[in-house]
Design brief:
mainly alpha; 439 residues; single chain
Length: 439
């Protein structure tokens, strides 16, 4: 049992180090090469591909290619194209063409985004085979993903890569490491039964039948609405903090010159909050946990909206602390909840559907909407003080949105149905697995 947890911890470390190498610093690189108006598009593409790629790749993993092999293949393609994007950035210097850089990056992201759900499926399957409760044992494993993310962030910060193309190469190399390691994971079963149905059955799209159950439909809709918040700080927090560097009062502040390291406090907060998930889920249930996440998102944005890296740096630090609750109590708890509500035959497909709603539809709307807000209040300004003021207005708008979603969720979502898993037809399965979330 201990051996498999160590192996999964390393798998999770590498998986999220790949993402951490560029996710919070890409905006600064784009700003430095004159593509600040395209930050929203670069982050939105993660959402766009998440609308279909995780679901399609999840179907492949459920039906034909074991999840651990599919995970390896996706990282091979993601790593190759991310390295290509970095090499192009190096050759193009300070004036890369948007089309070329965006195309290479987008193809890489298209194959990376499904790996998050695949990683979850591989981990849940390995824990099941070892007779271990996923709700109890997955969060401590998932902590190492956050550690990997932090290590990658700090690496690109202190090497100076956070402002250059080198962050893309770093991510690509880590993906190639994952290619080999994923193949050492326990085999994940595939559903080889003869398919007699039509298009929906052949392509495993019955995961969408989960919407037939009211409780799950409402859960997925609010997951989408909360997913709007997911990529906003990833794309814009680093440029926001560095923008203070143009004001003499803040130019020499440590946080301004080490924005990625300051932001890494968010991921450090995650490590503690992940460990709290089993307790909160079992004690309070998914509704309270999700509500706590929504309020935390409002605070995350709100503290940015009234803070600064000088005398107001404590507000930035508070923003980083609440991020652990905002992200983990939504992303990790939501994934565990979906896993508890579906049976093994559609595990990867259901995880892909959750990714579609959150990192797909929700994150796409969020990043494109955030770009519009920031263009209106920040990029339209020419004076440094006006730019900072515009940033503060933008963050407060995002905070207001998250607070409204929290209020609606509190009155609309109920989780009083059976905790037994749903089958491919969207009905309650006859067998309830051990370790189900208490509600």
């Amino acid at each position: 049992m201990k051996s498999i947890k160590i192996r999964l911890a390393l798998l999770t470390f590498i998986e999220f180090a790949v993402w951490g190498a560029y996710l919070t610093s890409l905006g600064s690189y784009l700003s430095n090469v004159g593509l600040q108006g395209s930050i929203g598009l670069f982050y939105a593409v993660q959402g766009i591909v998440s609308m279909f790629m995780p679901a399609l790749i999840g179907i492949i993993a459920d039906r034909w290619i074991p999840a651990q092999r599919t995970l390896s293949l996706c990282h091979l393609l993601a790593g190759a194209f991310m390295i290509a994007a970095g090499v192009y950035g190096m050759s193009a210097g300070n004036s890369p063409e948007f089309g070329t850089l965006f195309a290479l990056y987008s193809i890489s992201v298209a194959f990376f985004m499904p790996t998050i759900g695949l990683h979850n499926s591989v981990a849940y399957t390995a824990l099941d085979k070892a007779g271990m409760d996923a709700v109890k044992h997955f969060p401590p494993v998932r902590v190492f993903g956050t550690v990997g993310f932090i290590v990658a962030m700090l690496f690109v910060n202190f090497t100076g890569f956070q402002n250059t193309y080198a962050q893309l190469v770093t991510s690509g190399v880590l993906s190639l490491v994952m290619v080999a390691y994923a193949l050492t994971m326990p085999n994940c079963p595939v559903n080889n039964r003869k398919i007699s149905g039509g298009f929906v059955e052949v392509f495993g799209l019955k995961a969408f039948a989960l919407f037939k159950q009211k409780q799950m439909a409402v859960f997925f809709i609010f997951s989408m609405l909360l997913g709007v918040s997911l990529q906003i700080t990833n794309g814009f927090a680093n440029p926001f903090i560095q923008a203070f560097g143009k004001i003499p009062e803040y130019a020499n502040d440590w946080g301004v010159n080490n924005a990625n390291a300051l932001i890494s406090l968010s991921q450090m907060s995650e490590t503690l909050c992940i460990l709290l998930i089993p307790f909160f889920l079992k004690r309070f249930g998914i509704k309270i946990v999700m509500l706590m996440s929504m309020v935390a998102w409002a605070l995350r944005f709100g503290f940015f909206g009234i803070g600064n890296p000088g005398e107001g740096v404590w507000l930035f630090i508070l923003s980083m602390i609440v991020y652990g609750i905002a992200f983990d109590f939504f992303n990790i708890s939501g994934s565990l909840y979906v896993d508890s509500k579906t049976n093994a035959s559609m595990r990867s497909s259901a995880q892909g559907l959750f990714m579609l709603m959150t990192n797909g539809v929700g994150a796409t709307i969020g990043t494109l909407g955030a770009q519009v807000v920031i263009d209106r209040f920040v990029n339209s300004q020419t004076e440094n003080e006006a730019i900072i003021s515009g940033w503060h207005v933008s963050w407060l708008i995002f905070a207001g949105y998250a607070l409204v979603i929290a209020i609606l969720f509190m009155f609309i979502f109920n989780d009083r149905d059976s905790s037994r898993p749903l089958d491919a037809a969207g009905t309650v399965d006859a067998v309830s697995p051990e370790g189900m979330i208490n509600e």
